[in-house]
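User: I'll paste a sequence; please echo it back and then give the predicted structure.

Assistant: Echoing your sequence first, then the prediction.
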Amino acid sequence: MPVTNVAHDIDSRTLTITAEFAAPPSRLWQVYADPRQLEKIWGPPTYPATVVDHDFTPGGRVTYYMTSPEGEKFGGYWQIESLDEPHGFVFDDGFADENLAPVDSLPVSKNSYRFDEKDGQTVATYVSSYASAEDLQKVLDMGVVEGASGAINQIDHLLAA
């Protein structure tokens, strides 16, 4: 499994996941830059994603929904802050309603995804920061660790294809 470490810190309001992949950073970058590849790994294995809009540029927006095994749809969005191809990107990740409009009552995380080359592989560091300890605790209670770890662990299969 690619995920090698998961840590959350209520005091600093962060969740950090580290993973290792047998591919260069440029290949991992492509997974996020291509909406069809992103669909294969964004969301837990039983909640596949459908990317509706994919403006993967600074200031751009990515909208998506995940579909539960029962057919329920759960929307989300990214607001892209900056890109450093192929080394990573920074974005806000929020929950969205059925029309993919932001849901203000749910937490938004500031995310920094970093892809560093090490011995021909990529060490990926995923850091999510929240505005408050309560926001972090809310997503922890919603299963973000299990969901994000499951999603990241799907990347190996995609890279091998």
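The chain has a mean pLDDT of 96. The first helix runs from residue 25 to 33.
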